Every structure is written in C-alpha cells, then in structure tokens.
Amino acid sequence: MEKSLFRYIWTHSKRDQMIVCAVVLASQPFYFLSLDLPRQIVNQAIQGEAFRDGNATAPFLKMTLHWPEWLGGGSTLLFDGFQLSRVGLLLGLSCLFLFFVIVNGAFKYWINVAKGVLGERMLRRLRFDLFTMVLRFTPDALRTVKSSETATIIKDEVEPIGGFIGDAFITPVFLSMQALTALFFIMVQNVSLGLMALAVVAIQLVVIPRLRRELLVLGRERQLASRELAGRIGEVLDGIEVVHVHNAYDWERAEIGNRLFTLYDLRVKIYNRKFVVKFLNNFLSQLTPFFFYAVGGYFALRGTLDIGQLVAVIAAYRELPPPLKELIDWDQQRLDVQVKYDQVTQHFAEERLAPLLEAKPVIVDDTPLTGLLEAESLRVPDPHGGMVLDGAAFRLELPTSVALISNGGTAASVTAQIVARRVSGFGGQVHIGHRDLTQLPTSVTGHRIAYAGLDPILFPGSIRDNLVYGLRRKPEVGAEDARWKDRRIAEALRTGNPVDDIAGPWIDYDQIGVSDEDDLDRVLVEWLNRIGMGTEIYLFGLAEQMDPERYPHVAERIVEARRRLRETFQADDMRGLVVPFDANRYNDQATIAENLLFGVPVSEDFMGRNLALNKDFSGAIDRAGLTDDLVTMGIQIAETMTEIFEGLPPGHSLFEQFSFIGADELHDFEAILRRRRRTDVLGKDDRVKLLSLPLDYIEPRHRLGLLDDGLRLRLVRARALVRETLERSGMRGVEFYDPDRICAAAPVRDNLLFGRVSYRVAAARHRVAAAVSSVVAELGLREDIERIGLDHEVGTAGRLLTAQERASINLVRCLVKKPDILVVDGALAPFDESRARQMTDLLIDLFEKQSLFMVVPNDRQAQGFQIQMRFRDGQITTEKTGGPARGDNPKPETASRIAGEVV
User: Fold this and answer.
1) Where is this region: Disordered (predicted)?
2) What is the pTM of this model?
3) With contact defined as beta carbons under 8 Å apart, do 38 and 312 qualify?
4) Cα angle vertex 329, ends 326, 334, to 5°?
C-alpha cells in the first residue's frame, strides 16, 4: 500500500477531485455577490441612496462592464436594467438575495453529494485492496494475525478513512475559498476591520491545531484499545467451549471489564481536552464580532463607514467562522485519519504478504506437475532456535505415493506443507521438472495441488458449496444487457473492483469431467459414498427441505413413496407406528397448533409463541369458540408446570420434557396465576401468554389428560375455518398439507411419512427408519435424497457437523478437483486407526496416476506407499518399498472392495 494517504487518494481519484474543485471555484462569484447584496439592500433601497437625486425610480439589474486603465478605461453598458420604485427595488434586491441563497445551496448540495459518492467509491476500493492483501497473507503471517482484528480493520477502522477521502482535497479548497472570499469582501468594505478579522483568524488557525495534538495521541491509544478489545472478544468466542468447561466466566468478565474501563478512561480524557479546545475556539470566534460592533460602530459614528457597509461586514463575518471551524476540524480529522491509515499499513505490512505472482506478465505453464521433484538445502527453523530441517534434500520421480513418517516430530508435517506450498519462510529450493515450485502462480498450484490439513476449514453455506470450492474458476465476461449490471460494471471499473458477476458460471465442469449441475451432484454424492459419508449425507437429505421446482421428478416420486409407506404401515406388524395426517381426523402425535394449521409455518408470525399473537389465527379460533377452552387449558398447564418445576435448577431434564415453559419464563407464569387468584379476571396479555401454552401440547407425550374426544372434534372442525381465514387475509405464512403433493416447507422425512411417529410404540423410530430406507431403495430414491442432502448447511466454520464429517468433506473437496499432487497432513486424525487405514488404502488406489503425499504417525500406517520418507536430525532419507509401481494394474477387486468396506 501507499505509505501516504494523500498520495493514495490522489492516485485513484485525481480526475474526480479536480472536477469537484472546478465546481467549487465556479461557485465563488455567486457567493461573493450574495455577500454584497445586504449592503445594497440597506444603502440603496432602505436608506434610499439610489433615489437621492429625487428620482422616482432606480435601475434594477443594471449591468456595466468597467475597463481597466491599461485597456483605455471607460465602461460598456451591457444591460439597462429595470426601472423600479423604492418598494420595488427593495423587493427586487431581496428576491435576488433569495435567488443567490438557492444557487449557493444548490452548489453546496452538488459538492457534498459528489464528495460523498467519491468517498464511498474510494472506501470500496480501499476495502477491496485490503481484502486482496488478506488473500496474500503468508501462512506464517496467518499464525500471528488475528482474524477478528483484520475483519475489524476492514469493516470499521477504515470507515472514517473513507469518510475523509471525499474531503481530502475538496473540503480545504471549498472552505478556504469561502473564507478568503468573505475576508476579501470585508477588506473591500474596510481595511481596518479586515485586518482585525485576519488577525483573529490567524490565531485560530495556529493555536487551535496545536492544542489538538494531544487528542491525536489519545485517539491512537483508544483505537488500539478498541482493536484489542475486538480481538479479545473474538478469542473468547473461538474458545467459548474452554470457558464453559473450566467455568472461567468470572475471569473473562473481569478481563473484559478492565479493558472497557481503559476505553472509558481514554474517552473521558478525550472529552476533557476536546471541549477545552472547543471553548477557546468559540471564544475567539465571538471576539471578532466584539471588535466589529465596537470599532465598526465607532467608524460609523464618525462617518467613515456607512451603516450598509457595517451590516454587510457583520453579515460577511457571520459566514467566516463556520468554514474556519470546519477547516480546523478538517485538519484534526486529517491527522487522526493519517494515524489510522498508518496503523492499517502496518497491519498489512509488505513482509506479511506473499509475492503477487499473478501480476507478472509471463505465459503460465499449466502442464501437469510430474517429473523429477527435487528439493535441495531445505532449512526451516523452529520457534526455539533449533532447526526442523537443516540442509535436507530429497529426489522423487512423480507421480508416486509417499508416506512421510512423523514418529511424533514436526519435520514430516513441515515437509508436507512445503510440497503443498503452505510454508513460505524456508531456505533452499524445490523444483518439479524445470519449474520452481515457489514461483508457480496460484492459478496453477490451486488447480494442480490439493492440501488436506489437520483443521478442516469450511465456509458457511451448504455442503455442496464447500465441495465445489476448488472448482470455481473466473468466468468469461459476457454481454450484460440489464442497466443495473452496466452500472455495476462501470462502478467496479472506477473503484478497481472485479467486474465478474457472482451469479455467473463459476464452476469449471470440464475439470471434473461433467456437463451440468445434475451430473456434478451425482459425482459429489459418489465421492461422499466412496469416502464413507454416504449414510450421513442420506440422513441430511431426509432432514432437508426440498424445492419441488428444482427437483420436480423427485417430488413426484416422493409422493409415490408416501403411498407405498402408507400401505406398509397398514400391515398388521407395523400398524400404529405412524399416525398419518388426515384432514378429517385429529392427529394425537402432533401439537394442537399443527392440528389447527394442518400445515407447516413458513413465516415467523406463525412460529412458536408468535402464533398466539397473530390476529388472523386468534380471530379464527375465537370465531370457532375455542379461545376460552384453550386459555383454560393453558391455566391448567401453567399450574401443573409451576408445581412440577418448583425448586428445580435451570437446565433440568424436566424442562426439556415439558417444553411449554422455559426456566426463565417460570416466574412470569407464576405472577399470572397469582393475579388470576386475586381478581379472577385475566388481562389481554395474560390470556395471550396462556393461550400459547396448549398450542405445543401433545397428549401421548405430555400425558396431562387435557384433551377429550369432544375437544378433538372441535379442533378438527376449526381447522377449515383457520385455513379459510389465513387464505382470505392473503398472508402466505403457512404451507398446508396436501396428500397428493409435496409440502416444500417440511423436510423430506416428513413428506415421506406424511404423519407423525407414535410415542406409544416402543422403538417406533428405528422401525420407521428401516421401513423408509426400504421403500427409498425400492423406488431408487436414495441418490436423489443424497443430492438434497448436499443442501445441508454446515454452519460457521462447519460447527453444525461432526469432526469426522468436516474431515470427510475437506478430503472430498480436494479429490473432486483431481489434483496432480494431494498432500494429506493430519486430515485422517478424527478417524480411528482402522477407518484411517481403509481411507488410506482407498486414496492410494485412487491416486494411481497422480502423486499422494501423506503424513503418517508410524511405520504401520506407512504400508502400501511406494516411498517412505523418514526424518532425523534435520535430514531426510527416502526408501522405496514394495508398493505397486505407477502404470502397474492393481488387483481389480481392490478399489471396489475398499470402497465397499468404507461405505
């Protein structure tokens, strides 16, 4: 980055800065004329100087061009003007003054908008430049840089820099021109008053900035403290599990409290200093009017200054303090922003960034990474001053399979990271054929080298999004007809951002050998099954919602599977396992809310406690005559729950079993019951809260005996009224059940069952799951459900998945892009030794024609590799083993047998 903020701004925005500055200069004549008009109004119209010779009228808007003496002198009349009476001249000059106010306001409006747009464009450029440098952080830098601090810098700390960019050149030009114009006007009226104003202005411009220097130091300390606070909070969030395990709440609260006090103390010091400076600045601003009234009044009494001039001088000076104050504030902002910019450049220092190899104008050699892999004089220091590798060397012919045997040391992992281009701070050279591995552009290494490390990194999104991450390639820019796209591209070009459309065809289907998205999904599902994650992805698919428009043929087959399952569950040995949804019957295994809605909520207004607050729903059950019965049921539930939960600590298992009332709500319902006992009348809010309780009631699960056949029948009858009311209101808050079509808001499992598993039958869920699997396999639906499972969200950093699932997805992500070299460094650690051995054998067979480097803990896990690499005293030795040579045909049953065992 540029070390100078102003150089950075000028480099990327000089054209826009010059245009706005030109408009600023063009606005000054209008500003000067607006300052002179009060004098003309007072002298010519009010005091009548224009009518002094007894004239009944005076010219208005008379324009005369006076020539200087060196051009011959004289004058040229451009326009005679309009002859107006005294009142007419007063109104004409006043309207002219109003016109110039509007013109000056329009200039200020355009200039401020232009500054704002310019600042936002430059802020966008700056943030993008910083993010681009984040992508260039070396692996060594990433070990020391806190992600939360970097994100805070890009999101928050550069915000004031972006706000200042629009003001960097324009504001001082604009304010200086305004101040100079006002001062020049005062000088024209009276030199003495102008000199006094100039003296006070000089004091303000010299003294005030000096007094504000300490504010910069305090501001710098506050910014660093704020950044450290954000970093610390990020650390606590990342390690929240440790906080829970070791009960470190008090320590963390005290530590954050101490940091907050430091910030508070700094802010108080800043306020004290800032308002002292503000007081002095305001005093100096009011000192000049004192001189004007005293000295200017004296001149007016002596007759050397007329009243109109004095009024105009005072009016002109009234326009002087605001730009001066803003100039001083701008100077303060400049210094403060420069400090922030310096800290940003320090954070993104050059030594933390990898070389920008893509910028070199060379022809990229994207041939396969095969041939002689030769490493010479490898030197890697450890944190304790020793050497992990000290002049090590090895030579391998690629493709091959290599086991890097760690035996508890770090040298194997470091060597694997060197081969994968994950370590930059090492000595020596690594070549593949004639190419230097460290100088290969990332477009080559990202395509031909894959690295699966110990800590899988998954991004928020679906499993599919993470699996195809390595297949995303920059699409060709096509013709974009939509106007907003044209504007987007134009803005991207002006701010140095990429013009690529994120909705474009980013996935490189050719790399994986497929033609479209459907084929890609099938390949991804196949890889997940081969790696041993088939069961998990199938279960994810059953739990996911399905879009019928995206999978129309699957929707039809699920409806068919629903009918098959209904027939299966009607058999003698499975009757009663599932209670189906029937529009004319009450489903005892579903909640009262589900029975009333007979569908799945798709809006927050119909979910949880919000359902009782919904006016359409509550109005429907009120017309059905159910409100009082449900409120009474709510009172019974509240009385029972408060009695059961009395004295129980939060988190007790009973709270989960009877999930009507949470531990934090218990006191609220106790208060409602007390109020009812006192007055026997419930308020509106209390009735709504009580109404919400029975909506979650399931008789076979909660067994409070609150439902009888009569109430069940009334609830079923109210179902049609609820649906009619909701449809008439136009709110698409519920997707209703239909036995002949898919409910897109419900998961696939619920669409298959179209009912609820019975709580009364032992092991019902296991038997139902087996029946579902059987029908799914019979109809050939498993692969389609697994494809739907690819839509499963992984959560932040993959936290919605188990460690084994994260490791499997990370490994498949490496496999699907078909790399020339796969480096596995601890990726199999979450699996037990037997499963890790099976996956290792699978990888060896899969990489028959590519290279596989795997860090293994011992000699036992190194079996099957062509080459075993050992590490001792900073040196590397290689040993060929009896593994199958490249080009040999392995036993035909090996790959299929291992894949079958893994599945």
Assistant:
1) 877-903
2) 0.71
3) yes
4) 120
